[in-house]
């Protein structure tokens, strides 16, 4: 095989990365299905903060990208088919009426007001598994410990009086 054949074989096997929806749609898809970041992360074998990063603009790569793209495509399809169901289920007596249950608590949601990050103490606007944290590790500022201050000696108010036995009497 010549060098050119090897290049041709490499290019023939090269894969184009799967397209992903825009970042703002990724979070909306997950939330529309009442899924938490933790649930999606466990299924894809990544951390919840990684899912948060993907929902704010970072993109996965390699096989993980393929899995995430598959999840997003399937989520879009599920929502599309849910929206195609009859608008008035009461018109069909064989259809059960859906119950209106509260959606599961999404523990990976934005906080209405910043809270101290559990890792660095700086204000964080997201929470992961119920704890305020930064989604992007670069936003997490690790506090620098302050060197301990040496104890200060007590302030002297007046010099101690000399013992009277040491004072010379002048005559």
Question: Could you describe the 3D structure shown?
Answer:
Among the domains are: 10-87, Orthogonal Bundle (434 Repressor (Amino-terminal Domain)); 110-139, no CATH class. It has five helices and three strands; from the N terminus they run H-H-H-H-H-E-E-E. It has helices spanning 3-13, 23-32, 37-44, 48-54, 62-83; strands at 110-116, 123-128, 131-133. It has a three-stranded antiparallel sheet, with no helix packed on it. Strand 1 (110-116) and strand 2 (123-128) form a beta hairpin. Helix 2 crosses helix 5 (62-83).
Entry keywords:
434 Repressor (Amino-terminal Domain); 3 strands; alpha+beta; single chain; 171 residues; 34% helix; three-stranded antiparallel β-sheet
Question: Could you give a quick summary of the protein structure above?
Answer:
This protein has a 3-stranded antiparallel sheet with strand order 1-2-3, with no helix packed on it. The protein has 5 helices and 3 strands, in the order H-H-H-H-H-E-E-E.
SSE layout:
Elements: H1 3-13, H2 23-32, H3 37-44, H4 48-54, H5 62-83, E1 110-116, E2 123-128, E3 131-133
Antiparallel strand pairs: 1-2, 2-3
Helix pairs in contact: 2-5, 3-4
């Amino acid at each position: 095989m010549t060098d050119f054949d090897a290049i041709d074989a490499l290019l023939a096997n090269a894969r184009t990365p799967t397209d992903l929806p825009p970042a703002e749609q990724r979070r909306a898809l997950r939330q529309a299905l009442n899924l938490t970041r933790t649930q999606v992360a466990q299924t894809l074998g990544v951390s919840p903060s990684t899912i948060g990063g993907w929902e704010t603009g970072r993109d996965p790569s390699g096989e993980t990208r393929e899995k995430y793209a598959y999840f997003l495509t399937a989520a879009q399809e599920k929502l599309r088919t849910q929206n195609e169901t009859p608008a008035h289920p009461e018109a069909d007596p064989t259809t059960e009426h859906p119950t209106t249950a509260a959606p599961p608590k999404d523990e990976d949601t934005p906080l209405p007001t910043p809270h101290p990050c559990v890792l660095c103490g700086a204000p964080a606007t997201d929470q992961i598994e119920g704890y305020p944290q930064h989604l992007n590790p670069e936003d997490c500022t690790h506090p620098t410990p302050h060197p301990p201050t040496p104890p200060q000696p007590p302030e002297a108010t007046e010099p101690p009086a000399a013992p009277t036995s040491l004072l010379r009497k002048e005559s």
